[in-house]
Amino acid sequence: MKRRLAAMSRTDLVMLVLAILYIVSPIDVIPELVTGPLGLTDDVAAFGLVVALLLRSRPASRDGLPEA
Fold first, then answer.
1. What pTM, to 2 d.p., does this model score?
2. Sign of CA dihedral 47, 45, 20, 27
3. How many CA atoms lie within 13 A of 59 on its CB side?
4. How far apart are CA 33 and CA 22, in angstroms?
5. What pLDDT shows up at residue 8?
6. Which has the closest alpha carbon to 23: 48, 52, 5, 56?
7. Beta-ladder partners of 66
8. How far apart are CA 12 and CA 56, in angstroms?
9. In whole angstroms, how large is the CA radius of gyration of the chain?
10. Which of 2, 4, 22, 63 is most deeply packed, by most CB within 10 A?
11. Which residues pair with 60 in a beta bridge?
C-alpha cells in the first residue's frame, strides 16, 4: 500500500483524501434527508473517484495487465 501511495501524484493523493473525507462527512451537497435515495448520488460519485484513483495508481504487470 505504501508503494501505491508513493506512485500517486500529489494532486491524486489530495483528491483521494478529500473524496474519502467527503464520503464519511455528515455534510452533503445533495442531502439524503431531503431527496431520499437520490441524495446518495454524490456519495456514489465520490466513491467512484476513489476507486478510479486507486485503480489508476496500480502498477502494471509485464504483460500490460494490472497485477491482482
1. 0.66
2. negative
3. 9
4. 17
5. 76
6. 48
7. 60
8. 10
9. 15
10. 22
11. 66
Q: What one-character-per-residue DSSP string does 10-67 give?
A: HHHHHHHHHHHHHHH-S--SS-HHHHGGGGGHHHHHHHHHHHHHHHHTSPB-TTSSBP
Query: Tens of pLDDT along 36-52?
Result: 888 888 889 999 999 99
What backbone torsions phi and psi does residue 66 show, to the nearest 5 degrees? -65, 145
Grid-cell match 467527503, residue found? 22
Measured in whole angstroms, how far is the alpha carbon of residue 8 from the centre of its chain?
13
**Are the CB atoms for 31 and 41 separated by under 8 Å?**
no
Q: Angle CA(25)–CA(29)–CA(34) in degrees, nearest 5? A: 100
DSSP-derived secondary structure letter, 8: S
Cell of 12: 491524486
- For 10, the grid coordinates are 500529489
